[in-house]
Amino acid sequence: MRWMWIDRIVTFEPETRLVAIKNVSLAEEHLHDHFPADAHREALPIMPAPLMIEGMAQTAGILVGSVNRFREKVILAKIVNATFDAEIGPGETIEYDATLERIDANGASTAGTVRRLRLPATEWETIGRVDLMFSHIDQNMAGLAFPDENFVFSDNFRTILRAAGLEDLAET
Question: Comparing C-alpha atoms, which of 21, 67, 25, 16 is closest to residue 45?
Answer without folding.
Answer: 25
